Structure formats: C-alpha cells, structure tokens
Amino acid sequence: MRDFIKKALTKTVAVKGSRGRTEYVESPPNQKLVLGIYFAIAGLMGLIALQIAHLAVLKQWNSEIFAAITGLIGTILGVVFGQKAG
What range does the domain containing 52 cover? Predict the structure, then answer.
C-alpha cells in the first residue's frame, strides 16, 4: 500500500532535454505528505468503524460521523488531485 500512495502522489513533469527532445522526470512527494495521507486513511477507517458500531448498537444513522467521513474523503481526494496537477 505504501508504494501505491507514493506512486499516486508522484508528479511526472515534461522537461525539454538536449537537442529539443522532451524527457519526463518524476518528482517524488514529500515524506511528510505521504505520512499525512496514511494518517488520514487510518482516521477514515476509524470513523467508518465508529459509524458501523453506532448503527449496530443504537440502530441509528449518525449524521455527524458521516459528515466527518465525507470531509475526510474530500480532503484526501483534494490532496491527491492537487499534488498531481500542481
């Protein structure tokens, strides 16, 4: 999984090389960014487990937990797409 996240955050930049050729250079992500994404995914899994436990015990949907899950998913996707495009 570590390589998958690191690969997803790696930028590929086109650089003009010698004799007018275009070369592609990969720029690896910062290690702190990769660790932050790991932490966010772990938090997401924890929130999903909490929502499932809430459903099993109280038999009710908790909208606050769902809002946190939705926000965390949006943050993770924003980081991945922002890192690729930027």
Answer: 2-85
Say if residues 28 and 45 touch (Cβ distance below 8 Å). Answer: no
Nearest Cα to 44, choosing from 52, 25, 18, 33? 52
Alpha carbons 74 and 63: distance in angstroms, whole number = 16
d(CA 80, CA 41): 12
Within a 10 A sphere around the Cβ of 29, how many other Cβ atoms? 20
What is the number of H-type helices and E-type strands within the chain? 3, 2
**pTM of the entire structure?**
0.81
User: Is residue 37 classed exposed, middle or buried when 0-12, 13-18 and 19+ CB atoms within 10 A define those classes?
Assistant: buried
pLDDT per position as a tens digit, 56-66: 999 999 999 99
For residue 70, the 8-state DSSP code is H
Number of structural domains found in the chain:
1
Decide: helix, strand or coil at residue 15. strand
